[in-house]
């Protein structure tokens, strides 16, 4: 009770702090003095108040204070402490409070870290960020208050959805939000810079850090979500092109594009308007994601809040922000006549522009695929589904030139180059195609497109390896990221081609045989756990005379009453073995699904490599060449 | 000039997107299969008690109302809606036909003895494929049929309002 | 002639052997493209729900009756609407869905090309 009250009032006071912030900022904006220290103090106080509020909610969860409605709806006394804490942001209200926390944290860091930049720019960025912060404050206090009372307090809570009780998913939202909210800083900053006509090389160098930061977090956040889906949803996939996933992919694509073209701005002072548009759309897409997930307009795995009023609020807020930014863009932004119009065909700039072109196409595919069904339903009330086949058909063919450009682009220099060692590059490409040909030859799949696809991925793979050897530490971060990407595409492709699967119904004591595997259902054991009953199946699986034991599990949770299937996964460097069991209605049989999935771990590792590239670049003093 | 057109266009698009999302919010996001299936399907099924094969054309006569109810003894909501079926069965303009979904005979029989048997006929759907012929997605699901057409489709258990509505539709036609 | 008919017979017997596997492959292909209507974002192939299991049997039966993939899809659309297909058909409802991304790609290419030419002049 006490923690909820504390949390609620510090939330209110946090909002009130925005007043003096506005007051001192506008005063300071007009006068000649350097940045008023009071501004930093007040923004620190605001941060502290939001932290207190957040802690208040966490403690309410820890002490299972069911007089708090959010706790009542999402927690239970028998839940392990770890999940009580992570349950704080596993729901609508808590996750929005987390958003707010990161918003205030980031603007505070921004103020400290932007010393030495134009004062007016710093203040204006703060003001734009304050608009977003106030929006979230009002939303939290008015329509998604995490501290609503329940009188009388219930004895027991409703519990957290068991599939969300998982370590990867517990840290997935905070990491993802760091990425989303990082884009809000980019948004505020680009608006401020546009208004002041401050978009410059210096600005690009400074904002690049924020772009990299949000990009790294967003990448890791998406990775965690995928890993969770892989072992928790129980059928061995890791990406479903589900709208909720797409919604996190879209800002990622926009951010990746921004990451590349901000280099052109930094080095060559070009693509100014494009950088502004991209920064705005990155944040708009992040907010749009929040809207689509939270409003319940989508029908998907984790839409929590189905309250149209909340959706309407986020929607209106989002569109006001976009409107403001469009107005600022059209009023203040002036395309200046390029002083040095040297944009040559064979240059790094061109390569990056082409990268942007493809990235925008991928973004368009994902965006249209995600929102088109909503539009169609509103306009013609017809329901359609847009699933994996749509994305595969539209994206895969375009990956081929994309990969090739990705390999060649970094070989070019700024301004103008002749392609060095052309022969070398072509030779490598032929080798890649040949290798790919020998891999694909014996497989029963569409020959031509797969050969070229694997060939181009291999090309990128070989070229980046060659660059590691030849160029040593030059552009190491970019090279690592590109190498990671080639590895990523290759692992996904090989994973698709070489996966095998057995689906069968077995009961205890039965065996399944085919020419590759022998699956023996040895035993079924029952265990009573703190908040669930678990049934563990003992299986022994024989393949090529090698025997391994696997123990998939079925859990029957008490609060809420839900059955989940826990896969048993044996990971090795070359392949994952994946087994799940499920009940078959009214029978003593179990549905057993056994999969062998090659290169699974490489998918995760390659994404880690990609983000490692970002991390290295973040800590590097300056960009080489 | 070019800038003006561009800004005008982008704001127009913005408004369009906003209104669509706004409209989308008002709609419920719970999917209901469209009534693309207006006519009843043709099928042959086994009867529950006699285990005889029976054809759809031998079941449905014009000018009579039929309530097709997909149920199973293991399905909890079916238990809740059963009382409404029993009271609806007293209406002699309405014939209630049960489709027993993925069930075993003994449990289903016990279910009927315990809660009463509102069905004039019970057909057996051992593997759930017949339910798919009807465009059903699970149990319980109920269809009101008149002159070989599906007038109304109810996904999930009946409640008192739905039962009254069915009663009203049937009585209106008399 | 005799050799030729022998060849045909061998070919046919090979076909019969592989037809079983082909059918399963076709079934998997079809069910991977079907939305499990009572699940959240899962295909019928990936789901073990009652609905999905029954639908797998229906698809299997239809294949045995000689239906093609398209005919099975049409049959299911008639029962459940286009919502059930993950791969949206190309028709008046979806022209924009399929073509808009490609148009954007072409438009983007045109803009870049124009700029490059202008600058290089």
Can you walk through the features of this model?
The complex is a heterotrimer of chains A (625), B (174) and C (121). Chain A is 62% helix and 11% strand. With 625 residues, chain A is an alpha+beta fold. In chain A, the strands form two sheets. In chain A, strands 2, 3, 4, 5, 6 and 7 form a six-stranded antiparallel β-sheet that branches. In chain A, strands 1-10-9-8 form a four-stranded antiparallel β-sheet. By secondary structure, chain B is of the alpha/beta class. Helix content of chain B is 41%, strand content 23%. Chain B is elongated and about 80 Å long. In chain C, 69% of the residues lie in helices and 0% in strands. Chain C is built from four helices and no strands. Chain C starts with a helix and ends with a helix. Chain C is mainly alpha-helical. Classes of the chains: A alpha+beta (625), B alpha/beta (174), C mainly alpha (121). At the A-C interface, helix 12 and helix 13 of A face helix 4 of C.
At a glance:
Chain B has about 170 residues and is α/β, with parallel strands linked by helices.
Number of separate domains of chain C:
2
As a whole number of angstroms, the C-alpha radius of gyration of chain C is 23 Å
Low-confidence stretches of chain C: 9-17
Number of strands of chain B: 7
CATH level-4 homologous superfamily of chain B: Glutaredoxin
H-E string of chain C: HHHH
At the first level of CATH, what is the class of the largest domain in chain C?
A: Mainly Alpha
Oligomer: heterotrimer
**Count of helical segments of chain B?**
6
Layout of SSEs?
The complex is a heterotrimer of chains A (625), B (174) and C (121).
Chain A (H helix, E strand, L loop, with lengths): L1 H29 L6 H26 L6 H6 L6 H6 L5 H22 L5 H24 L24 H29 L5 H32 L10 H26 L3 H24 L12 H25 L15 H33 L7 H21 L13 H19 L6 H25 L4 H23 L1 E7 L4 E3 L3 E12 L3 E12 L2 E5 L2 E5 L4 E5 L1 E4 L3 E9 L6 E9 L1 H20 L6
Antiparallel strand pairs in A: 1-10, 2-3, 3-4, 4-5, 4-6, 6-7, 8-9, 9-10
Helix pairs in contact in A: 1-2, 1-6, 2-5, 5-6, 5-7, 6-7, 7-8, 7-10, 8-9, 8-17, 9-10, 9-12, 10-11, 12-13, 13-15, 14-15, 15-16, 16-17
Chain B lengths: L1 H25 L17 E4 L5 E3 H4 L5 E7 L4 H13 L5 E8 L3 H11 L5 E5 L3 H5 L7 E6 L2 E7 L4 H13 L2
Parallel strand pairs in B: 3-4, 4-5
Antiparallel strand pairs in B: 1-2, 1-5, 3-6, 6-7
Chain C lengths: L1 H31 L17 H15 L4 H12 L14 H26 L1
Helix pairs in contact in C: 1-2
């Amino acid at each position: 009770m006490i923690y909820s009250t504390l949390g609620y009032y510090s939330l209110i006071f946090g909002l009130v702090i925005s007043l003096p912030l506005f007051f001192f900022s506008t005063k300071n904006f007009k006068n000649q003095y350097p940045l008023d220290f009071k501004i930093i103090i007040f923004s620190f106080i605001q941060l502290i108040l939001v932290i207190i509020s957040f802690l208040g909610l966490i403690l309410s969860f820890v002490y299972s204070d069911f007089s708090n409605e959010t706790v009542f709806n999402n927690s239970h006394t028998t839940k392990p402490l770890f999940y009580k804490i992570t349950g704080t942001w596993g729901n609508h209200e808590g996750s929005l409070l987390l958003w707010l926390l990161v918003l205030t944290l980031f603007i505070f860091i921004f103020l400290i870290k932007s010393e030495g930049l134009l004062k007016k720019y710093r203040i204006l960025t703060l003001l734009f960020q304050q608009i977003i912060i106030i929006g979230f404050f009002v939303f939290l206090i008015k329509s998604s208050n995490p501290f609503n009372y329940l009188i009388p307090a219930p004895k027991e809570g409703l519990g957290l959805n068991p599939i969300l009780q998982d370590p990867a998913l517990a840290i997935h939202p905070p990491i993802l939000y760091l990425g989303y909210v990082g884009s809000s800083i980019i948004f505020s900053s680009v608006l401020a810079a546009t208004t002041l006509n401050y978009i410059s090389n210096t600005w690009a160098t400074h904002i690049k850090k924020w772009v990299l930061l949000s990009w790294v977090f967003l990448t890791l956040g998406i990775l965690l979500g995928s890993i969770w889906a892989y072992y928790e949803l129980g059928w061995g996939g890791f990406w479903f092109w589900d709208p909720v996933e797409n919604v996190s992919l879209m800002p990622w694509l926009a951010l990746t594009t921004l990451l590349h073209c901000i280099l052109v701005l930094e080095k060559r002072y070009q693509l100014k308007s494009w950088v502004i548009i991209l920064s705005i759309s990155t944040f708009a897409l992040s907010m749009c994601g929040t809207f689509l997930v939270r409003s319940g307009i989508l029908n998907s795995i984790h839409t929590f809040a189905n309250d149209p009023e909340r959706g309407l609020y986020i929607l209106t807020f989002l569109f006001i922000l976009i409107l403001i930014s469009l107005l600022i863009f059209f009023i203040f932004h002036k395309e200046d006549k390029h002083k040095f119009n040297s944009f040559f065909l064979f240059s790094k700039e061109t390569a990056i522009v082409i990268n942007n072109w493809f990235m925008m196409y991928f973004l368009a595919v994902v965006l249209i695929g995600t929102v088109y069904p909503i539009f169609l339903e509103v306009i013609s009330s017809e329901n359609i589904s847009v699933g994996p086949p749509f994305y595969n058909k539209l994206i895969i063919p375009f990956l081929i030139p994309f990969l090739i450009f990705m390999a060649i682009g970094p070989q070019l220099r700024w301004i103008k180059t002749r392609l060095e060692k052309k022969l070398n590059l072509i030779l490598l490409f032929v080798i890649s195609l040949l290798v790919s040909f020998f891999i694909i030859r014996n497989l029963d799949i569409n020959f031509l497109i797969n050969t070229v696809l694997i060939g181009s991925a291999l090309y990128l793979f070989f070229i980046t390896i060659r660059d590691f050897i030849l160029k040593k530490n030059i552009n190491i971060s970019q090279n690592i990221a590109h190498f990671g990407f080639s590895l990523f595409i290759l692992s996904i492709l090989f994973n698709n081609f070489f996966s095998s699967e057995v689906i069968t119904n077995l009961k205890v004591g039965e065996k399944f045989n085919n020419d590759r595997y022998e699956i023996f259902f040895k035993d079924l054991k029952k265990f009573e756990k703190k908040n669930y009953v678990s049934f563990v199946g003992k299986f022994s699986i024989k393949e090529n005379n090698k025997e391994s034991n696997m123990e998939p599990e079925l859990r029957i949770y008490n609060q809420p009453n839900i059955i989940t299937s826990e896969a048993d996964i044996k990971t090795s460097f070359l392949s994952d073995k994946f087994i799940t069991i499920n009940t078959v209605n009214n029978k003593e049989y179990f549905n057993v699904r056994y999969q062998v999935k090659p290169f699974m771990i490489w998918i995760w590792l390659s994404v880690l490599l990609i983000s490692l590239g970002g991390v290295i670049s973040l800590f590097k003093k300056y960009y080489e060449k | 000039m070019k800038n003006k057109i561009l800004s005008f266009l982008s704001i127009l698009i913005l408004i369009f997107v906003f209104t669509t999302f706004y409209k989308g919010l008002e709609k419920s996001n719970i999917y209901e299969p469209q009534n693309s299936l207006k006519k009843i399907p043709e099928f042959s099924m086994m009867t529950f008690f006699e285990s005889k094969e029976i054809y759809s054309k031998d079941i449905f006569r014009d000018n009579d109302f039929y309530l097709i109810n997909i149920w199973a003894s293991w399905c909890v909501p079916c238990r809740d809606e059963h009382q409404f079926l029993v009271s609806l069965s007293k209406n002699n303009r309405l014939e209630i036909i049960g489709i027993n979904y993925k069930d075993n005979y003994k449990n289903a029989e016990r279910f009927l003895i315990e809660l009463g048997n509102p069905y004039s006929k019970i057909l057996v759907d051992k593997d759930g494929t017949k339910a798919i012929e009807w465009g059903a997605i699970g149990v319980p699901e109920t269809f009101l049929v008149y002159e070989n057409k599906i007038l109304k489709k109810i996904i999930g258990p009946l409640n008192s309002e739905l039962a009254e509505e069915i009663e009203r539709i049937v009585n209106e036609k008399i | 002639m005799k050799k030729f008919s022998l060849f045909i017979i061998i070919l046919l017997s090979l076909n019969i052997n592989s037809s079983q596997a082909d059918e399963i492959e076709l079934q998997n292909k079809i069910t991977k493209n079907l939305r499990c209507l009572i699940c959240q974002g899962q295909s019928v192939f990936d789901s073990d729900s009652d609905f999905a299991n029954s639908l797998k049997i229906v698809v299997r039966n239809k294949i045995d009756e000689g239906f093609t993939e398209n005919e099975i899809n049409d049959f299911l659309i008639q029962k459940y609407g286009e919502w059930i297909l993950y791969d949206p058909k190309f028709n008046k409802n979806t022209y924009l869905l399929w073509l808009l991304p490609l148009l954007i790609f072409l438009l983007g290419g045109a803009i870049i090309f124009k700029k490059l030419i202008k600058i290089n002049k």
